[in-house]
Design brief:
Elements lengths: L1 H51 L1 H4 L16 H4 L2 H5 L6 H11 L27 H12 L33 H10 L2 H5 L18 H4 L12 H10 L18 H4 L2 H13 L2
């Protein structure tokens, strides 16, 4: 009987030692677990943001002039933006609600042309709740570094193209045009949403630039596809495609883009067959 008591006592002592070790290290293990989980969410959120949000909110959430506001910005995290819309919840609540349910109209005092679409599948959007969580975690990850405020993506510098749609263009580069269209947020209206006429091929529409300047409803000055596209970029109200609204696309690209920029954009748009 004595050996059984000894074994039982030893087993009990060993179990208590193991239990004590687990209790002592539990907080560290849980901290590591939470950090690993948050890191994974940031990684997933970064990919979702890149694919869905950068066309309007810019690379790393720095915003795009006349397209979408900065999210990597001090006024979002210090509460100023929430006060402006009289939102009484937390910053995280505001970000989650805005992503999930969208914003049908821009904030008062702003002039962004795109409405914020609904993203959560609970409200008819394309993303699951876990994907919304990942996006929120990714955006909140900027909180500690956003004290300097967001800065809109700068437009190219150099000689301005102007508004002469007949002006000769240099040779355009398709890849540069695609990169520029993305950085300026053009795809946010013309590819990922229906704010502007679609760029991607549609058999029911035809080759767009190659045909629109010959249509009966066209009354402006373009006589070639290239001129029509230049006009659409630098004089967007000269001809508004039926079914769309004027004064949505920025009207100052002629003063902000160089001749090479315009040529690259035209080359890219003509490549979309």
């Amino acid at each position: 009987m004595t050996w059984r008591v000894v074994v039982g006592t030893a087993a009990f002592v060993l179990m208590m030692i193991l239990l004590g070790y687990v209790l002592v290290t539990e907080q560290g293990r849980m901290t590591n677990f939470v950090e690993a989980y948050d890191s994974r969410q940031v990684e997933v959120g970064a990919a979702l943001f890149q694919n869905n949000c950068t066309p309007c909110h810019g690379d790393q959430g720095k915003g795009l002039d006349d397209v979408g506001p900065a999210l990597n910005a001090a006024d979002l995290f210090n509460g100023d933006r929430l006060k402006a819309v009289e939102f009484s919840g937390t910053v995280e609540d505001y970000i989650r609600a805005t992503i999930a349910a969208g914003r049908p109209v821009p904030t008062a005092g702003t002039n962004y042309p795109n409405r914020m679409p609904t993203w959560s599948d609970k409200f008819g959007g394309p993303l699951r709740e876990d994907q919304i969580d990942s996006l929120v975690t990714f955006i909140m990850n900027w909180q500690s570094t956003a004290a300097g405020g967001g800065q809109a993506t700068p437009l190219p510098e150099g000689e301005a193209f102007g508004t002469d749609i007949k002006a000769a263009l240099p040779a355009g580069d398709v890849a540069s045009g695609e990169a520029l269209a993305t950085s300026l947020g053009c795809v946010g209206c013309h590819v990922t949403s229906a704010v502007g006429p679609g760029w991607l091929a549609d058999p029911a529409v035809g080759l767009r630039a190659e045909t629109r300047y010959t249509e009966a409803g066209y009354t402006s000055a373009a006589t070639t596809a290239e001129e029509y596209l230049v006009e659409s970029i630098v004089l967007p109200n000269a001809h508004v495609v039926a079914g769309f609204n004027p004064d949505v696309m920025p009207k100052d690209y002629g003063q902000k883009l160089t001749p090479q920029n315009v040529a690259d954009l035209v080359a890219y748009l003509l490549s979309l067959k």
